[in-house]
Amino acid sequence: MFYSEYMCPIGKLLFTSNGKALTELWFPEDKYSSNIENQNIRNDSIFGSLHHQLDLYFKGVDPLFDIPLEMAGTEFQRKVWNALREIPYGTTWSYAKLARYIGQPKAVRAVGAANGKNPIPIIVPCHRVIGEDGGLVGYGGGLPIKEYLLRLERIIL
User: Fold this and answer.
1) Which of 98, 126, 129, 149 is catalytic?
2) Which residues contact 99 (CB under 8 A, 6 or more apart)?
3) Nearest-CA neighbor of 138 among 117, 120, 153?
4) Count of domains in the chain?
5) Residue 140 confidence (pLDDT)
6) CA-angle at 66, arms to 60 and 72, nearest 5°
7) Is 8 among the catalytic positions?
8) 3-state DSSP call for residue 27?
9) CA distance 61 to 66
């Protein structure tokens, strides 16, 4: 497993890679990031490309993230995470819309749980999922980071 750090307006992000694909992203202050900090840090092509794409993203440009991803999860979780990648930059979907999109309209809570376990936030844009009433609900990085990302994408809150 390889690691990389990236400083951005929301703090230091920490990434993991298996050498072929991005596997995880941790936010600042995440309880897991301290366990691996400064271990096996390297800048390979995956991380270099990711850093460049994040530079664009944090300048308010949609970089169309195109790096290889490998996300460990159940079949249902991967279905939700793949659907998250279909939410266009600068837009939001409700949990109910996401559940309908994957063909399971009654699975709103399960969709929310899968969304919350997304191992690669920002790249797999779980921050674009909001409550049915338009309110911000839950985010692994905290609601201030979710709000920041939505404002960055020019989504008016």
Assistant:
1) 126
2) 105, 106, 107, 108, 110, 111
3) 117
4) 2
5) 82
6) 110
7) no
8) coil
9) 14
Do 33 and 86 lie in one domain? The reply is: no
- Which neighbouring-strand residues pair with 41? 3
List of E strands, 47-155: 93-94, 129-130
pLDDT in tens, 65-90: 999 999 999 999 999 999 999 999 99
Q: Which of 18-27, 29-38, 43-52, 141-150 has the lowest mean pLDDT?
A: 29-38
Q: In whole angstroms, what separates CA 38 from the centre of its chain? A: 22
Higher pLDDT, 20 or 93: 93
For 106-117, the pLDDT digits (tens) are: 999 999 999 999
Whether 32 and 86 map to the same domain: the answer is no
Longest dimension (CA), the chain: 44
Q: Which amino acid is at 39?
A: Q
Position 46 scores a pLDDT of: 76
Domain membership of residue 103 as a residue range: 75-152
- Using CB atoms within 10 Å of the CB of residue 145, give its burial: 0 to 12 exposed, 13 to 18 middle, 19+ buried: buried
Q: Do 91 and 41 reside in the same domain of the chain? A: no
